[in-house]
Structure formats: structure tokens, C-alpha cells
Amino acid sequence: MNTPPAPAFARRPIHELPDELISQIAAGEVVERPASVVRELVDNALDAGATQVTVRLLAGGVRLIAVEDDGCGIAEQELTLALRRHATSKIASLDELESVATMGFRGEALAAIASVSELSLLSRTATASAACLLDARSGELRPAARAVGTTVQVKELFFSTPARRKFLKSDATELAHCVQALRRHALARPDVGFALWHEGRLAQQWRATCAPGQEPGDDALARRMADVLGEDFITESLTVHHQAGPLVITGRAGLPSSARSRADQQYSYVNGRYVRDKVLQHAARAAYEDVLHGQRQPIWVLYLRIDPARVDVNVHPTKIEVRFRDSREVHQATLHALQQVLAAPRAQALAGAPASIPTENFKPNRPQTLAWQAQAALKLEESSGHKVSDLQALWGKPAPAMPDSPAQAPAEALPPAQPVVGAGVPAPEAAGAGDTAAWPLGRALAQIHGVYILAENTRGLVIVDMHAAHERIVYERLKAQIDAARRIASQPLLIPATFAATPLEVATAETQGETLAMLGLEITAFSARTLAVRAVPTTLVQGDAVELARKVLAELAQYEASSVVERARNEILATMACHGAVRANRLLSLPEMNALLRQMETTERSDQCNHGRPTWRQLSMKELDALFLRGR
Questions:
Q1: Segment 336-350, tens digit of pLDDT
Q2: How buried is 343 (Cβ within 10 angstroms: 0-12 exposed, 13-18 middle, 19+ buried)?
Q3: 3-class SS of residue 432
Q4: φ and ψ at residue 532, rounded to 5 degrees
Q5: Chain center to CA of 200
Q6: 3-state SS class at 195
Q7: What beta strand segments (E) does 424-475 contain?
């Protein structure tokens, strides 16, 4: 007689989980390491109106985390309720949830932390005669001594879940994460003082830079950034202030020359909350990609103010991710804010900086007839590029019309590099000696090995890579001519390029038709699972239409904005500019060198070439004196 096979598994009945296990599961989402506890407790302190927050740690926060604040405190009758799951004073209705303005709102952090540690809560309100101390493990409530405010002590983190404790790193590593968590809060709230003690020693302290509750200005933010990130961050960054409708973006963006090998100084805030948002990250990277060299990472601290009803913060248990109602609006606002700041040539800042030599005493050397200038009569062979002896290649005359296909334009058809920003640049030979002090990059003195230009300004010596500088000037001119059309010209394909598409790609093509048209693309549904590319940008007609379409659709689906077309177009223009720029080992006359310097002073992004390398360097008189030990 055959017996039935045994079931592969025994079915278990459905039942409710005990509250302690539920809290421990929630702790797995909220409490990853000691830094997670610091973040949650400091959030509560700031929501309580604290003006001073002190964090004390032992063993990197594993043995002890104590967060003290001088906020409003918790009433005695609410202490036990504060440790229950989903108990909070931050919200009371769906309307308040959809427009959260506080750091915390979920009401599960204290309960989750208490389930995996030994937690005690000490608090006093302004109307109470004494403080009350609550032990979360025993539930005992007794009077204690404390000023108005709250102290939360968390001992022996993960003692009840030994497996979680094994995943923690060394004390030094956990301490570094705790410092980073507090640093993120400090950058967002310059009106609050922060202090961190470890093993009884003061590890970090940041004093308030403006009055409590006051809207911090640029000066207060800059002082807090200097305290937290160092003075170098301020000297190597630019102020950002941009408004696009209801969006306001402020902060500081690092110069391309200050980029780092790691993305460890990129701080983005939405309504005072530190976030890691893919839309903001993508917009910032897109703004920097035209001026960065290789895989360098830019630095920034950006604050986005937006109507709380237009952003959903109830996305992630740790509240570090958000979802915008209009991601494209936020992306474009961030992109334009950074592009405007990075576009201004750094040479313009030299005009307002204190000079190493007083302006009234600055009398540049006007070279008389220099022996090496006679080399211009040698008529050396010139293989390619602009004829630089003709000043039209550098400034002054209008450019010819762009060809239909820039990718096929010969080098000699490249337009001359006129200033993209500003006008009225005087011809070098027409300027008097008194005008020279107003030139940020100064007056040209000589050329070294046909590669570098030496110039003298009020601060000292300027060294210019002439090929890199002229390459950027030509590149920006080409971009300006195409951008003037405000819409990328497209060319229909004789035979549409079809490809098998995913449901997301089909949906994106249907909903983003207007955006695709602005990018010079026409993508339509050929069938339920096939898309057809019917038109592509004119400058990219020789490329792979299907690959271009896939990349654009992927970015549109993820960020509701795409820079793929612009990036591909700019690569072509950069190649054209590189071939059209003045070559190394070309001898330039002094008027030509001066014309190039004037163009650099008015051309956007002229501090870096198309590949992100610097185009010029300034050596001050102090630095030159140090080279020769003068004054020692």
C-alpha cells in the first residue's frame, strides 16, 4: 500500500506578534548602529526647541549614548506614553502628515531603541517643580534633579540581540559615524549649539552662530560651515542663492578645483532635513560634469526650501529619503542654481580682492621691442587650427553661421571665440596704462615654450595654459550658438529605428513626449512592446539612435529630466573646440596674448578647460617672495 508523501513543510498558524518582537523588528529598520540612535535622539531634541544639544558616548556609543537638551521637556504623565509605539506629539491627522514640518513624526524611534537597549528618560518641563526619571525596562518612575529639558540615556546597545551587535565595527569607526550624524544636524541648524563628548573628553563642539529661532543668513551659515567643515571649504566654495517659483535654494557650492576623490562632503537638505535624494544628486552632478576632471567628486552644502505639502517625507523609516511631487521642477531648479554659480569666471573675483600691490603704485612693465618678438617673421609652418595672428580668432568680429551639422564642420569653419558673457571688451592696444589695473588677469608679459602665457596683475603673477583657455572659449561659443535656439534641432530618420522596450520605457515615451521633443527626439510606440525612434538631434545623427533613446528614457523615468542629449552634444562640441583652439608651440604676439586674457575674463567656466583641467593659476607676491626666502 502506497503512503502519501510527507508535506515539504509543516504549516504554521497565523498569529499576532508580541509587542516586544514588533519593536525589535522596527529597530532593525530604524537602529542600524549607534549613529542611528544619535540621529533620532537629536531629531527629538531639535523638535523640542533646544538651543544646546550635548551628546556623550562611551565605546563609540555601544556602551552609552546620552543626549541632553534644554528644550521644552516632557510632562510627567506623558513619559510612559512616549515609550509606546506610534505615540507622538508631532502629528494628529492625515493633513498634518502630508505637510510635516518637524524632524520626527513616526513615533516609533524611542520604542524601537528601548527594545534593543537599556533606556532611561529624564525630563522636566518649565512648570514642573522637579524632573522625573523613567526606566524603560522596569517602568519605574521617580523624581530626580534636572533643569528644564530632556536627557535620554541608552546603555548597552543591542544587548538583547547579540547577533546584531556582532555586525558593529570598531569603537573608532562607530565614533566617526556618530560625529558625522551630529555634523549633518549642525550644518542644518546654525542657531543651535552642539557638543560631543567621548570617554569623558570633548571631541567636537560647534557654538551657535545666530540667535535661537532666527532665520540664519549667509554669514551665519558660512561661519557654521567653517566650524564644521573647515575654513578651506569657505575659501574654496561660492555662495548659492536661487529662487525658482516656490523653490528657494541656498548654501555653498565648491569650486571645481576643490573636488575630492570621495563624495564625503556633499550635504543636501530639504526644509532643514538631511536627505540622500537621487534627484538632487543627479542635478548637482549634471551641473559639475562640464568642469570636473575624471571621476573627481564635487563638494557642496545645499538647502532647499519648499512647501512641505509638495514633498513626501514618509518614504523611509529613517526619514533620509524623500519624494517630490514635481521632481522635474526640483531637478531643474537645482541644476540652474549651480550652473549659474559655476559659470562666472573666477577671474572676476580678483577684481574685488585686495591687491598685493596697491593699485595706484601698480605700473605694469610695457615691454619695448623684445628680441624674441622677431620670431614672428620666421613664418613657421602651421598645420591646423585657427590662424591666431588674425585677432578674429580671439575677439571682435561676428561669427559666420553655424553649419547644419557641426559634427561635419571643418576646423577652419569654427566660429571665433567671442565672449559669451558681457561685452565692450577693449582692444589690448587701445587700453592705457591706467586701465591695466582693472584687468583681473593683468597684462601679458611673455610666452614660455609656446605653451604658457605669463601675465602681471595687481596680485602678482598669472600663468595661463593658452591651449586649454582658448579651447574653453571656443567651446562656450559653440554651445551658446546652439542654445540660442532654445530647442535642439532634430532630423527625421529615413528608416525609423525600432527596438524592444520594457513597459516602463513605453510609458515614459508616452508621458514625456513634450520633453523628448525639446531634446530633439521623436519616440513613438510601434506596438505594445516596441518603440520607434523617428527623429534624433541633428548633431547626433551619426550615432546609435537606439542606445541614445534608451539612455534618455532611463533618465526621464528616474529623474523626470535628462541630460543625455546635452552631454552627447557637448562631447561633439568639445572635440570641435579642441581641434579649433590655438595649438601648443604657437608663438603669439603680445596683443594676441592680451586678447586671450580679456576673453577669459568674460567667458563662462573659463577657469577649466573642456576636460576639467585648470586653465590658469595665480601666484601672489607673497608666494613669490617665499620662493626666494625674501623677508626671512
A1: 999 999 888 877 666
A2: middle
A3: coil
A4: -125, 130
A5: 36
A6: strand
A7: 443-448, 452-457, 460-465
In a 10 Å sphere around its CB, with 0-12 CB exposed, 13-18 middle and 19+ buried, how is residue 618 labelled? buried
pLDDT band of residue 306 (cuts 50, 70, 90) is very high
Q: Is the pLDDT of residue 409 over 70?
A: no
Q: Strand order of the sheet with strand 452-457?
A: 443-448, 452-457, 460-465, 616-620
Do 608 and 255 touch, CB atoms closer than 8 A?
no
The answer to whether residue 394 scores a pLDDT higher than 70 is no
Cα distances (angstroms) measured from residue 517 to each of 50, 88, 346, 480, 535:
51, 48, 35, 20, 9
Q: Which DSSP state fits 361?
A: G
- Residue 141 to residues 74, 76, 153, 157, 579: CA-CA distances in angstroms? 13, 9, 15, 22, 79
- Residue (of 265, 263, 261, 255) closest to 288 by Cα position: 255
Assign 486 to helix, strand or coil.
coil
> Can you tell me the distance from the alpha carbon of 473 to that of 454, in angstroms, rounded to the nearest whole number?
19
Distance CA 234, CA 254 (A): 8
Taking phi over 0 as left and psi of -120 to 50 as alpha, with beta for the rest, 424 belongs to left
| CB neighbour burial string for 449-474, b if at least 16 within 10 angstroms, e if fewer | ebebbbbbbbbbbbebbbbbbbbbbb
Longest dimension (CA), the chain: 117
CA 585 to chain centre: 38
Cα–Cα distance, 471 to 485 (Å, whole number): 23
Mean pLDDT value across residues 240-269:
91
DSSP 9-60: S------PPPHHHHHHHHHHHH-SSHHHHHHHHHHHHHHTT-SEEEEEEEGG
Cell of 20: 516586544
**Cα three-residue angle 555-561-566, rounded to 5 degrees:** 85
Q: Could you list the beta-strand ranges (E) of 467-521.
A: 490-500
> At 369, phi and psi to the nearest 5?
-80, 105
Total Cβ atoms within 10 A of residue 96 = 14
Residue 1 burial class via C-beta count within 10 angstroms: exposed 0-12, middle 13-18, buried 19 and up: exposed
* Grid cell at residue 254: 565648491
d(CA 596, CA 417): 9
Pair 149, 50: CB distance under 8 Å: yes
pLDDT digits (tens, 9 = 90+) for 360-378: 555 555 544 343 333 333 3
Span 153-174, pLDDT tens digits:
999 898 877 777 788 889 999 9
Q: Which residues, including other chains, have CB under 8 Å from residue 322's CB and lie 6 or more apart?
A: 270, 273, 275, 277, 311, 312, 313, 315
Taking alpha carbons only, the member of 90, 131, 117 closest to residue 27 is: 117
Are 204 and 179 in contact by the 8 Å Cβ rule? The answer is yes
> Over the stretch 71-109, which tens digit does the pLDDT of each residue have?
999 999 999 998 888 888 887 888 878 778 888 777 778
